Amino acid sequence: xxxxxxxxKQPVSGAAIWYEAVMNNVKQLVTDVLDAAVExxxxxxxxxxxxxxxxxxxxxxxxxxRDKQGNNFDLRGxxxxxxxxxxxxxxxxxxxxxxxxxxxxxxxxxxxIDRRLFKDYSVGLKYSDNVTDKEAKFNSGNRYLFFVPIKDxxxxxxxxxxxxxxxxxxxxxxxxxxxxxxxxxxxxxxxSISSDNITGWQSGWLPVDNDDSExxxxxxxxxxxxxxxxxxxxxxxxxRSVKFTTAPAVARDVIEVLRSKFx
Length: 263
Prior knowledge:
Elements: H1 26-39, E1 48-56, E2 59-67, E3 72-76, E4 80-82, H2 88-92, E5 104-113, E6 123-126, E7 144-150, E8 153-162, H3 174-187, E9 198-208, E10 223-229, E11 232-240, H4 247-261
Parallel strand pairs: 4-11
Antiparallel strand pairs: 1-2, 2-3, 5-8, 5-9, 6-7, 7-8, 10-11
């Protein structure tokens, strides 16, 4: 209570302090990784869409692409490592005999606001079940909302909802906004935030482990899948990644898969 006097009037039963790494600028990290790749000989094509795999007799010969100006061009190569997540089936389906794996996805959303709610700490608050959504499944008595300081404000989240519940859309509509605001205000010790405090959203698709339960079970492990065509390795590897902290290990595992295919 001395560290967080905002809770002095709340019926607090316990608390814990822990230490964690915080990524202040995800885009900058990705940019730095790409810059390092260029320094080590990579060619980068940003703002470019992968349209279709090019192949001969079931083996890759390259990739058809389109840049942001609408120009089409081909990249030549015998290996494609597809880490595009929810859209990866689009590429694989152009290979003969390709079989997609059933994969469920959840929309992950963080709210960005212009207020620094807690001065010196990131704070995780137990989520209250008084904000309900029968279809969305994002609220649970065992979940927390985290309030992480960012420049001039806070990032709050993360909310998870099935792709079916949000009709496969990443966009945050007015109904979503109200639902998330109600959720956030239900756990704040005093005061509230309004739509005027919202400065933006972070959203993306996370893989969900395929089980038959209605609850969302966010995947904890990455998956690497080499794709065969006509009984042989086609040159395509699909990677289902889950988080930044495991990315170096996943990259090493992908290299090992390639080594095993080309011994």
